[in-house]
User: Fold this.
Amino acid sequence: MLARASARPQGLRPVLRPCCLSFLPPPAIGVSRLLVSGSAPIAVPYAVIVLIVLRQFPMRLSIPALCSQVIALCVLAITIATLSLSASPAVAASRSAVIIADELTLDDVAYSPKEERALRQQITKDQARLRQRYLDEHSDDDDAATIFDNIWEQALKGESALARAQLATLYQSLQAPGKRAARTNRLIAYLSFASANDDVAYFQQTIFNALSQIKQPTLTDQRRIYYWLNRLANSNSGKDSDFAASLLGLRYLSSLYQQPHNKQLKALTQKYLTQGAEGGIPNSAFALANFYLGSAHNSKEGAKWMKAAAQAGHGTAAGTLGLLYAQGTGVKTDYQQALHWAKLGVERGDARSHDILGLLYEMGWGIKADVAKALDLYSQGCKLGDDLSCQDHQRLTRQKQ
Assistant:
């Protein structure tokens, strides 16, 4: 192709370019640079001017050639605009935006008049189904129909929190899979809103459970989840508060992996995971241990909470604690303790513990080295879905060959 371009008569500007851009027409290259640099408003007039200038060159592009330039330009512009938009800092920032529950107010999660109208219309459409469900559940009550009509009237017109809660309970019994699930869960959350606002822990949890079951929650759904989790975590409702704190801490920990230098996130992660861990929730203790071992760089505290999680029955925590003892991370090196906890993790059916116990057998730490046993443990861990077990099994198999 380059040979053909160089064979053109002098005075004609070759259209083709060497390297990976050789297939692109000159105006497309210019527009692409403008798009990448963020000057999209200038790109379109630039393209028009370049195409006009091309018509004045001695080579005199034909109409078909000019059309090909326009088509190539449009395709490239759309492609690059899409790629540059998805990679732009603004879009990236919006995707990784962190919701801080402590900063949300009731106004941030309240339902707008437009939302309320749409939700009430959906509830009205379901009146017959809800009525029939209520009658089925109270078939031995002759006044069931009248009672339901009163509940309906108070829920949608009288704004009775109790009546709305009763409708929410009916919707829970009407849960349907598929596309209707998200719609039903939003209605449950909406109907529970008034009762939850009265600091009734049950309804705060109901809202969270309903919205968290939506496969693709909107940003508003997410804000409501964070808000009610925060309310429940700080409501002094015993185990319910500790469980909510644990879930909130886990969400903050996930965000912290994306923004490891965010001090506010670190503080909130530590606060809520500690509340959950001290409340005896194994998952919270395990997450708090990983927080200290990772983001907080405090191996001693990490080992402490890893042991607490392991003692509370967490399988992966038991195996990981075994690894900490084997490596002497946060605790004094003790191969017998490493073996004990790794075996306990395997007994609990944890996939990662198989890999850790396999490593102890392979290296002969605390027990006589046994490559065959290590391979078997790696294989079992791999079947259980642990990637490290699969990698170690492949590695050790190659070494034996």
Observations:
- Residues 1-25, 31-40, 83-96 have pLDDT under 50 and may be disordered.
- Residues 27 and 48 are 9 Å apart (CA to CA).
- The two ends are 50 Å apart (CA to CA).
- The longest helix spans residues 63-87.
